[in-house]
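Lecture notes, unit on protein representations.

Consider one protein chain, 108 amino acids long.
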Amino acid sequence: MAKHILRATSKTWDDVVLKANGLVLVEFWAMWCSPCRELVSMIKEISDEYADNLTVVKVDKEECEEIADQYNVMGVPTFIFFKNSERIGRIVGIITKDELIKSIKEYL
């Protein structure tokens, strides 16, 4: 896992996501998901470029089914933005770096 990317599990979800300060980008992914694998380097770049303003968190949908169900995550990749513990945005499916940056800037 990259330096600025956190991993959340059912046990750490509240501390890593809901209690985080500022903007949090959560990526729900799965090991078998080829689009998720295609996004790995882009997500790392984003986490490095926005390290001062954004917390990036990865959640394995299959390991954390109850969290995925709670947030109606049906497919992967799914990105959900949180700010001050509130869900403020969502992107489903593969996305370009420019599209993701546009959303990040909108929510900052």
